[in-house]
Specification:
Length: about 260
Amino acid sequence: MTNHLAIQLKNVRKSYGDHEVIKGISLDIHHGQVVSIIGGSGSGKSTLLRCMNFLETYNEGEILINGQLLGYTRGASGARKLAPDEQTRQTLSGVCMVFQQFNLWPHMTILENVARPLQLVRSLTRLDAQRRAMLQLERVGLAHKAKTYPGQLSGGQQQRVAIARALAMEPRIMLFDEPTSALDPELVGEVLKVMKDLSEEGMTMVIVTHEMGFAAGVSDQVIFLADGIIEESGVPEQVFSQPQSPRLQNFLSTWKERSAESLMG
């Protein structure tokens, strides 16, 4: 199993009716890699990420997680059909996703928010679940908030709880869908620090992000999507310092202008 790629996409396509959002994307992601996906609004970034977790079905191609076909089976004729739910859950057992919104239960303490899924999904006892939850809250710097409720935390702290909840499931692969986009600017750094720590620990991560500086600093590979295709990809130094595609050049110049304006403002 360790010889397999963590995630492999082969000519993946996704449509909503007549509108094709993902137009034949192929991509290899190795274990321990950090891959950032950047691009403008409507480029297909989040849709592609959701396909990797089968929150969106894909219409054509293949997505393999640790060498296992995600969401589908193939018959003797080669025709594919939806896989049984249990098979898909098994394929995704080592994958967790962190969303833009925190999705915490407001009536439960922070500790319970992290521990409860372990009881429901992994069938841990309440005590064992809380022990594991505390370890992950310590990991994101929030053990001292264990008895508080989501409404008593800042947005950055709530997102760190969401990351702790995902980590408690002991994933091998983590998917992040613009995890800082709902945060006030002054709270972004604390979430990015946790993610940077994870990258340094060797977690396989795929990150849809608007934080270009973060993507440049932690990524092994940066993917620039435009109109549902990979317009350009490479190591951060090449993508950010020597972009080849005019569309990427324009995207980065717009980002730099916004960054300059925010600094002046």
